[in-house]
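Run log, item B.
One chain of 516 residues. Sequence copied directly from the ordering sheet:
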Amino acid sequence: MFRKCFNKLSTKIIRNFHAKPKRFERDFPPAKNILAETINGNKINKTSDWKIIRNQLLENKIVYNEKSIDSILLNHCIATKKYDYAKKYIEFLHEENIKMNLGSLGKYLKMYYSMYYDGLMHEKDEEKILQIYEDILKEYPVLDSITLENLICALSVTTSWKKSKDLLTQCKLTTIPTNNSYNSLTTSAFRNEDPELGWELFNEMIINNRSPQNITYESILNELKINASQSIFIAKLEKFFEVLDNHDLQFDKEIAALLFNILKQSKVKGIVSKITYQGICVKCKIKLDETKLTNNEFNDLKVAFLNEVVVGKNVFCKTTPEELDRFKSFIKNMGQFDVVIDGLNTQYSQGVAQSPQVTAALLSEVVNHFKKQGKEILLLGRNHMERLPTKNWSFIKRNCMIFLTQDISQDDPFILYCALHSGNDTKIVTRDLMRSHLFLLKDKRLKKLFKRWLIQNRLHLITAKPGTVIFKQPLKYMITPQKNENTWHVPYIEEIKENPKSIKYEWLCIDLNKFN
C-alpha cells in the first residue's frame, strides 16, 4: 500500500483520461539539438543523403553509436511526422546492407501505427507491416514485450489485425500487456465489427489495471451506429454505460462531444447538465441514487469481503497464517469504532520526502482531530510505525486502538474489513481508492455495493496542520453513469486543474423516453 498512496487521486481518477494514444516514444538523446540541426542542415532528396547525416552524427561517439543510431534517427523522423524521411532512411539501410535490430524495427512498425491515425497509411504500407511481421517471427522465435507491443500496434491497423490477438496471448505468458497493446487491439476489434471480442479485451484491460484511451472509446461509439435499428442502438448504448459504471470510468469532453453528436444523429435526446451536491440534475430534476447502503446490503458486503478478499487466496500471499489468525481474534474482540485510519497512507499523505518528525506530527493531528470530537478511533498500520518519534507515538497509542501488521503485509484488506466490521456509518481515513480489492469481489452486485460504501464512508485528507485538519467530504452520489426513470446521467471530465489537483465534471442527461 506504501507505493500506492502517493498521487493516487491524480493517477487513478485520470486512469481513463488519455486524450490520444501513445504512438511513439520521445526518447531523444541529450544532444537532441545536434540531431535536429544535423538533419535540418542537410537536404534529404535521395537515400544516399542519409549516409552523410548518419556519419556526421556517429562522429559524436559520446552520444551516438552503431547500435543506437538507427533507432534514434527513426524516432526523430516519426516524432516530427517526417514519415517520408523515415522511409528513405530504411531504404538507405537496405542499400548499405545495414541490418536493423529489433529496436529499430519496432520504431519502424510504430511509424505505420502513427501514419494510420494521421490518415496517411496506404495498401503498400500494410504489405510492408505484414512482411516485417513474418521476418521477425522467422528470425526471433521468442519476443520481448516491447517488440510484441510494436507488432500488436502495427498489425491492429491492418486487415490481418486478428494476428495481434495471438501476440497478446504470447505477451501474457511473461507479463501484463501494455496499455498500447490492449488499446490498439480492442480498438481494432470494435472497428472491425467484432464487439464480443472488443468487450472481452476491454474488461480484461481494466482488470489488469490498464487504461482505456480515446481511440478505444471512439471505436466503441462508432460501432454503436453500424447497421443498427433504434432499439439495437439503445441496447448497445446502455451496455456501454453499464460497463463504465461497473469499472468506475469517466471519459473526457472530446469523447462526450462525439457521444453527443451520435445521440443527435440517432434522434435520442441528450443535453449537457450539472449535478448538485445533493445529487439532483439541474435539467431534468431527477435525483441520482444515494450511496448509503441498506442494512441488508451492508451485511452482504461485509460477509463477502471477509471470505473473498481478506482470506482469499490471491491477497494474503505476503503475510502469514499466524498474522491472519491474530487479525481474526482482534476482530472478534474489538468494539465499535467511529473512524478507522489508514495509518501509513495518512502519515505520507503530504509526500514521502517529509521527515519522520513531520509525518508523525501529521498523523497525531489527525488522531487529535477525531479525539476532540469524542470519536472512537482505530488505527491500522505497519510494525515499523513503532519507531516513530516517542512523543507522537505515545500520544497516538493513548488516544486510539492500534493494530499493526508485518512490514511486508498488504494492510489494505485489514483496514477495509475493520471499517466494514465496525458498522455502516464508520468512516475510513485514506486517500487510496482501493480499486485492486474491488476486482477481487466476484459478484457484480457486490462490486457496486463496495463502490457505494467506499464513496460514502471514505474521508480524503486534504491538509493537517496544528489546529487545522481538513477532509474532502464524501459525495452523496456516484460519479458514474446511472439510470433513473429511463434517463441516463453520464459524467465526463470537463477540466483537470493541477494546483490544487481537482477535476471538474459535467454530465450528459440522456432521456430515452424522448426522441428528436
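Observations after the first pass:
- The CA atoms of residues 342 and 430 lie 5 Å apart.
- Residues 2-229 form a domain with the Serine Threonine Protein Phosphatase 5, Tetratricopeptide repeat fold (CATH 1.25.40).
Flagged for discussion on Thursday.
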